[in-house]
Amino acid sequence: MSKNEKKQKVGFLGTIERVGNALPHPFILFLIITGGLVILAAILAAAGVSVVNPTTGEEVVVKSLLNKDGFSWIMTSMVSNFSSFAALGVVLAMQMAIGVAEGSGLLTTAMRRAILGVPMWLLTAAVLFLGINGSIASEASIIFIPPLAATAFWAAGKHPLAGLIAGYAAVNAGFTANVMITATDALLYPVTLEIAQGVDPNYTTTVANNWYFMIVSCFVLTVVGVFVNNKIIAPRLGEYKGTEVDKERDATPQERKGLRNAAIFSVIYIAIILIGCIPKNGFLRDAEGSVLNGPFITGLVGFLIVYFILVGVIYGKTVGVFKTASDVPKVMADSLTSLTSYIVLVFVIAQFIQIFNYTNLGTVIAVSAADLLKSAGFTGVPMIICIILITTLVNFFMTSGTAKWYIFAPIFVPMFMMLGYSPEFAQVVYRIGDSCTNPITPIYPYLPMIIGMASKYDKKAGMGTIISMMIPYSVAFLLSWIVMVIVWMLCNLPLGPGASVFM
User: Fold this and answer.
1) Quick one: which of 236, 299, 316, 426 has the fewest CB in 10 Å?
2) Residue 263 CB: number of other CB atoms within 10 A?
3) Residues of 441-453 as b/e, b for ≥16 C-beta within 10 angstroms?
C-alpha cells in the first residue's frame, strides 16, 4: 500500500470509506434495503399506522406489498418504474451532448487555455462558485459540472477526483443557493404564500423573498468549500498517478481557431436567448410574460443539450476531429459506455423509490418528524437548528425538495408566524436542511452517476469513497448556514426584497 493510500485509510473519513466500500455492490445493497422496506411496510400496515397529510387533510395509511394488490402492483409496474425514472433520461441525454463537446477536444482545450496562469486557489473557488450557481440549470448542472471540474483540475495538474468531488458537492449541497432567481424559488414561494395567507389573508410575498440570503450564501459556501478541498480532500487524495498532464502546452493554431469559432457560436446562441427573454413579449417568455415559467427556464436542459452538441460539432469540424457527419453519433454512442453500470443500478433504485412512494412510508416519516418538532415546543435558535436537522434527516428518505415542502410548509409556516417569524424565514430554514445532505443521501438518483465518473480516476472508488469525501462538504456547509441563520436573526437582516426574519 502506497503512502497516499495509507493516508486515505486512517481517521474517521477513512473508516467511513472502508465501511462503505466493504458493503455489497450498490445493486445488491439496494435489493436488500428494498426487501427490508417491504417487510417494514407490511408490519406498519398491519399495525394500522397512519398520519394526516397537513396539505390535503386526508389520512395517509401505510400500504403493504405482501398482499394480492401489492404483488400485482410490483409485477405490472416494474418496467414503467424503470422507464419513468426522471433522472435517467436527463443523464443519458446530457451525457451524449457533453460527449460531443468532450470527444471533439473542446473541453480539454478550453480548460487548458482558461487555466494557464490561473492561481490554484482561484481554480478551486471558480469550480465551487460555478457549481453552487449551477442550480440555474436545475438538475442538469449535476450532470455536466462535476466532469467539467474534474477536467479543469486534471488540466491544472491537480487530482481530477478532487475536482469531481468539489463540483458534485457544490451542485448538490449548495443547490439551493444562487446569485439569480431560480426555478427552486418559483416552486417554493407559492406554497409559502398560500399557507401564510391561511393565517393572514392579507399576507404577500414574492419569488425573490430569499434572494439576498442566497446571494450571500454563494460566496460563504465558496470560501468554506475551498477550505474543505484544500485542507481535507486534496491531502487525502495526494498526487494523481494517472495520465500525465501537459500543463505547459498551449493550444495549437488550429485549436485556437476552433475555440474562436466555438466562442462566436456561443455569443450568437446567448444573443438569441437574450432576445427571446429580455423583451416583455419575447418568444422565450410564457403567455403572461414570465421568464421563469417560459420555455427557456422550463426547457433549460434542452437548450444545454443543443448547445453542447452544436458547439462540439463546430469545434470538432474546425480542428478536423469530425470529418464526416457519422463521426458525431459515434462519439455520442461511445460517451454512453461509461454509464452502463449506472443504468443497471438505476433499475433497482427506481423500484426502491416507487415502492417507497406506493407504501406511503416517505409521507408518514416526514409528517411524523414535523409533528414531533411542533409538539416539543422549541423556540428561537434551538427550534431553527432542530428544523434544519429534521429536514436533513428526512432528506435521506425523500429527496424531492418540493414534495417535502408541501408536507412541511403547513406546519412550519404557521408555527413560525405564531412565534413572530416570517414565512420567508421558514422557507430559508427549510431550504438549508433540504440542500446540505443531498450528496450523501444513498437513494439520491445521481449518486450512482458520480460513482461511475469517479471510477474513471480511481478504479476502486465506491459508494464509501464518495460519501466519505462528501461528508466534510455537507457538514461544513450545514454549519456555515446555521451560523448565517443565527447572524440574520440577531441582526434582523433582510432575506430578500421586502422580506425579513421577523413579522
Assistant:
1) 299
2) 14
3) bbbbbbbbbbbbb
pTM, two decimals, is 0.70
Q: What is the pLDDT along the chain (503 residues), one digit of tens a residue?
A: 445 544 445 555 566 556 655 667 778 877 888 899 899 999 999 999 998 877 567 888 999 999 999 999 999 999 998 988 766 787 788 788 888 988 898 877 876 666 555 676 688 998 899 889 877 666 667 777 888 888 888 877 788 899 999 999 998 888 889 888 776 787 788 888 888 887 788 888 888 889 999 999 999 999 999 999 999 998 888 887 765 444 445 678 899 999 999 999 999 999 999 999 999 889 999 888 888 778 887 777 788 889 989 999 999 999 999 999 999 999 999 888 877 877 887 888 788 878 877 988 877 876 777 677 667 767 688 889 988 998 888 777 766 666 678 777 877 888 888 778 899 999 999 999 988 888 887 767 788 888 888 888 887 777 778 888 999 999 999 999 999 999 999 999 999 888 899 98
| Strand, helix or coil for residue 61 | strand
DSSP letter (8 states) at residue 492: T
Q: Is 197 exposed, middle or buried (0-12, 13-18, 19+ CB in 10 A)?
A: middle
DSSP assignment of 364-422: HHHHHHHHHHHHHT--HHHHHHHHHHHHHHHTTT---HHHHHHHHHHHHHHHHHHTTB-
- At position 502, the amino acid (one-letter code) is F
